[in-house]
From TrEMBL:
Sequence similarity: Belongs to the SbcD family.
Database matches in Pfam families: Metallophos (PF00149)
Protein name listed in UniProt: Nuclease SbcCD subunit D
Database matches in CDD domains: MPP_Mre11_N
Lineage: Bacteria, Bacillati, Actinomycetota, Actinomycetes, Mycobacteriales
InterPro entries on file: Calcineurin-like_PHP, DNA_Repair-Maintenance_Comp, Metallo-depent_PP-like, Mre11_N, UCP033093_metalloPase
Organism field: Mycolicibacterium neworleansense
Key word Nuclease present: yes
Amino acid sequence: MRFLHTADWQLGMTRHFLNGEAQPRYSASRREAVAALGAVAAASGAEFVVVSGDVFEHNQLAPREVSLSLEAMRAIGVPVYLLPGNHDPLDAASVYTSALFTAECPDNVVVLDRAGVYEVRPGLQIVAAPWRSKAPTSDLIGDVLAELPADGTTRVVVGHGGVDILDPDKDKPSLIRLAVVEDALARGAVHYVALGDKHSRTEVGSTGRVWYSGSPEVTNYDDIESDPGHVLLVEIDETDPHRAVRVDSERVGRWRFVTLRREVDTDRDIADLDLNLDLLADKERTVVRLALTGSLTVTDKAALDACLDKYARLFAALTQWERHTEIAVLPADGEFDDLGIGGFAAAAVDELVATARTEGAGADDARAALGLLLRLVDRGSAA
């Protein structure tokens, strides 16, 4: 028996740093990653799909987003089981109980809206642990595992949240207790645990039966999400009394959120950065965050600014990571001697250079003014 394990679709997600039309493209790509599960299911012979929480970014979605999301789920073609998570819990404002969702929900979509067992077919069950609020007061998976018998039924647990061995907040009441999960696996009451909440593909423990699938499309930078963009293909051997499990993955995501750390001290360093940015493929689906450190002349800083301006127009977003970016800008000796100006203008430039070399008030403005002057002079020469 095969099925697909996915989670954290967070349909309707926005990212404030995306450029202009990049946000609609990103939203569309998240839905396309969902619809793409249909091809994966068909190629692998998967019977169904489980979505382990956070199907939607939140419960207050625009009607168009709900309708388009449901159409993407319809395109999957096999049964799709949706688990409410912390982003879209089954509270009073739940999207799952809205008139629009209930009216347009495709026949192949089932909301796991109660804790407990769901019959997929004879001999195969899903054990669900949905969120009913953003702050559960107990281990929801532990609650549903407590009295499950080891009776020969194949069971897949679908849950959401942090696991105690991975979460630094050990006192959080909603943490999933891995020991409880592994006890249920060891006694044969359940055979695979499909988790959501962690956006990177992650195996939990050493049984090979407890996994986070990660989000099918990236949601954060690579220092936070090391391995997003996958769906897991899970195979359980129902002829084996121990229900042997095999887990493979398929990449469905197309976006990348990349962090680049570079030292920039010379014009050569800027040229290398330019080359690295140029070599990044699929720029319309790539977000770049730069952490730049170094010391530059005003001329080189102007060249760096021109480089970043160019690529900001090409990438879905190009930003500087302020906490990890520190570039000192100091005018070099003779840097402004050949501008071809004299009189009052030359005196003004000398004054700006002197101010830029200080650490006092106005130094940053003076450096910015000198950089703008160099860029204007370059444009005039080009004309």
